[in-house]
Amino acid sequence: MTGPALRSPRWLALAPLSFLLLVLVAPVLRLMVEAWSGAVLPSAAHADDGLDALSLWHPWGDPYVRWRLLWSALQAALTCGLVLLLGVPVAWVLARFDFAGRRWVLRALMLPFVVPTLVAAMGVLALWGPQGLWAQAGGRSFEDTPFLLLYGNVFFNLCVLVRSATDALEQVSASRVAAARTLGATPWRAFWRIEWPAILPWLMSALCLVFLYCFAGFGLALVLGGQAYATVEVEIYTLVAYELQLGAAGVLALWTIGITGVFALLYAALERRLATPLRADRIPRRAPERAAEWLAVAGAMAVLVLFCLAPIAAIVLRAALAGASAWAVLWEPDTLQALGNTLRFSGVALLLATALGLLHALAARHSAALRALAFLPLVVSPVLVAFGLLLLYPTWTASVPLLVAAYALLAYPFVAKSVASGLDGLPANLLAAARSLGASPWRAFWRVSWPLLLPALRRGMAFAAATAVGEFAVTLFLSRPEWATLSTLIYQHLGRPGAAHLDAALVLACALMALALAVFLLIEWPGADMRHPEESHA
Amino acid sequence: MLELQGICKSWRPPRGSERLLLKDLNLQLPKGQTVALLGPSGSGKSTLLKIIAGLERPDAGHVLLDGRDITYLPPEQRKFALMFQDFALFPHLSVQDNVAFGLIEQGQRRPAASAQAVEMLQRFGLGSHTRAKVWQLSGGEQQRVALARALITAPRLLLLDEPFSALDADLRHSLRAEFQARIAASGMAVLWVTHDEAEARAVGLHGFRVSEGCLSPVW
User: Fold this and answer.
1) Contact assignment for B84 to A185 by CB distance below 8 Å
2) A39 Cβ neighbours under 8 A, 6+ residues apart
C-alpha cells in the first residue's frame, strides 16, 4: 500500500538533479563534444602510423590503443570468470551452513568495500610485488605480469559476487529443491537443475557490476598494471595529464562510456527483474556434520583469507616490519597536511552527499526513472568525470568547491540507494496509523519514518564516507600539490625510488585503511544489517 | 508397506528453547491405502512428511519400507513423491519439462521422458499446455501438473502436504474428486496431510491426528 501519507513531492529532486546536471551530465556532454568536434591532435608517439587521428575509429586503428581497449575488456572478463568460479562455492557454503563465526565472516565481506583502492593496490604489492612477502620467501615476483591486476580485481570483486550469490541462494525455494530431490535428483543435480537457474539472474547482475568496476577501474590498473597491462582509464589519464592530448583522450572516453553504458543498461534491466518479494520457504541453514561438509567450510574460508584478507594482512605485516624510521612518516608535516585535507574534503563532501542522497531517495520513491538516475555516477568512471570537469570548468580547475562537488558526486549514490531501500522497507500501514492517530504528514515522518530510516541512512553515509576518504582518481586530476590527500601522498611515495619510500607508502596505507575503517565504523556501528547499497571502486 | 517406529524430532526456533515436535511416533501404511493425517499448523505434520521423504532425519526412530530400514537413505533413492502446498513447480521449465523432470533424473533419456510427459499431460487434460511456462497456468492447472509430475514416476508412496490449501473452495472440491480417482487408478499408498477434517474424512480410509507430538487414531 502506498497511501498519501507516504507520498513525497517531486520537487525534492530539483537539487540532486541540478547537481547531477552540472557535475556529471554537462561535463560528460562536453567530453563528447571534445571527441566529436575533431579536436584530436596527432599524437607525437603515433604520428608515423599514418592513421587518421581525427576519426572516432582511431582507437581501433592504432594497435597500441586497441590493445588498451581490448585488454581493459579482457581483464574485466577474466575477473568475472575468476570471481564466478571462486565465489559461487563460497556463497553456497555461507548460504547453506551455520557455523561459529558465520556472521562475522559476512560482516568481514564488507571490508573490501571500505578499503581504499590505493591501499588494496599496496596490499597486492606487499604480498606479490617485487619486494613482497612472496618474493622474500623465495617465490618469483609477479611484476610485469597480468597476475597483480587480476588478483587486485578479485580482492575487490569476489565479495561483490559472494554477497550477491549468498542473497540469491537464500531466496531459492526450499520446496522446489525438496521436490527435485524426491523426484530422484542427487544434491548436485538438484543444484544444477533447480538452484543454478534460480540464482543465475542475480549472478549476471553481480557480474555486470564486476565488469563495470574492472573495465572502468583506475587506481589498481595505474599501480598494478605497469606499462603492459594498464587499462584504458590509465591511458586517458596519461593522455590528459602527461601528453595534453585532450581530443585523443576524448575519443577514448567516448568508447569507454559506450561500453560501460551497455553494461550499465544490462545491469539496470537485470535489477528490475530481480525486484521480487522475498520468499517465505527458504532453505534452512544447518550445522555441517560430515567431514566433507567441514572441508567445504574450511575451503571457503581459505579462499576468502587468500583473496580478501591476505592483502590487508600483508600491508600491516610489511608496515610493522618496516621499523620505527618508516613510521616516522606519520608525523611529517606533509602527512599531517594530507590527513587534514582528507578529513576536510571528505567531511564537507559527506555533508553534501547526505543532503543530496536523502532528497534524491525521497523524491524517487515512486519513480523508477528517478531512481535509476542515482546510479549514473557509478556508471561514469571518476577519471571521466574529472576529465569532463576539467574541460567544462577550466577556470575552476583546482578549486575546492569543484573538488568537493566531485567527491560528493561519487559518494551520494550510496546514500540515495541505501535510503531508497530503507523507504521500500517501511510498512505503509505504520504511517497510516500515525496519521489516523492525529499526526500531520511532517509529524508522521519525524516520529515514525525518520527513526526507522536512520539505520539505512547511517549505512549509506558509512559507505559514502569510506569512498570519500579513500578517493584517488578525482584528486589526482583536480587538486593542487598543496591539497594532497593521504591517497595521493601514498602515490607520490610510490613514484619515488628507494625502499624507504616504499616503506613510507606502506605505513601511510595502513593509516589510510585505519582511517577509512574508523570513519565507517563510527557512522555504521552498531548497524545490524550490513547489506551494501551499491559499491564502487575507481 | 511403510512403517514408522518410534520417530522423535525436536526443533529449536532461532530465539528460543528446544521443543519436542514429534514424540515416539508409530504408524503403519499398507500398500494401496490412503491415510489422512490431521493437525493444526505447527503440529509437525509437514516435518513428519519430510522425514518419510528423507529430506530430514529423525532424532530417533526408524522408517521402514517393506521391512527394510530406509531412515538414512537419501530422498532420491526412495522413489517416493512429495507434493507441496505451493506445488513447488520449477518456474524456469515448461509444463512438459516439469513433468518429465523425475523421469530424466531417474535415468530415462530426454526424448522418451518428454514423450511420456506429453502423454501424461494429455490424460490430465493439459495437452494444449505442454509448452507453456508453469506460471502461465491457473491454480487448478498448476495443481494437476504437480500431480502429473508426482505420478509419472510411479512412486512407491505419494506424500501430499495440504495439496489444496492454496485453492478456493469450489476448485478444491472438484479437484479432490479428480485426484482421488487418479490416485486410486495408480494403486499406490498415499499419506494425505491436511488440517481440514472434512477433506481428511473424504479421502482417507483411516485418519490420524498429530497433537502435541503424538499420533492418535481418529477413525
Assistant:
1) no
2) A246, A247, A250
For residues A85 and A229, state if they share a domain: yes
Whether residue A179 and residue B76 make contact (CB cut-off 8 A), yes or no, is no
Gyration radius of chain A over CA positions: 24
Write the residue in B54, B76, B85 that is nearest to A186 by C-beta. Answer: B76
Q: Find the domain containing B17 and state its range.
A: 1-79+155-219
**End position of a domain, from candidates B111, B137, B154:** B154
Helix, strand, coil shares, percent, chain A, to 5: 75, 0, 25
CA A151 to chain centre: 16
Distances in Å between the Cα of A435 and the Cα atoms of A103, A425, B127 are 38, 19, 54
Bridge partners of A97, per DSSP, are A286
**Region label for B27, one of left (φ > 0), alpha (ψ between -120 and 50) or beta (otherwise):** beta
Q: B207: part of which helix (H) or strand (E)? A: strand B206-211
The residues, ordered by sequence, that sit 6+ positions from A496 with a Cβ below 8 Å of its Cβ are none
- Range with top average pLDDT, A64-73, A350-359, A396-405: A350-359
Q: Looking at the predicted structure, is the pLDDT value of residue A420 above 80?
A: yes
Reduce the secondary structure of A430-470 to three states and give it as a string: HHHHHHHCCCCHHHHHHHHHHHHHHHHHHHHHHHHHHHHHC
Same domain, B5 and B25: yes
| Minimum Cα–Cα distance from B102: chain A residue | A183
| pLDDT number for residue A432 | 67
Would you call A197 and B92 a contact, using CB atoms and an 8 Å cutoff?
Answer: yes
Q: For chain A, what is the mean pLDDT?
A: 84
Per-residue pLDDT of A272-286, as tens digits, reads 666 555 556 788 888
In chain B, what residues touch A185 (CB-CB under 8 Å)?
76, 101, 105
CA B167/CA B147 separation, integer angstroms: 14
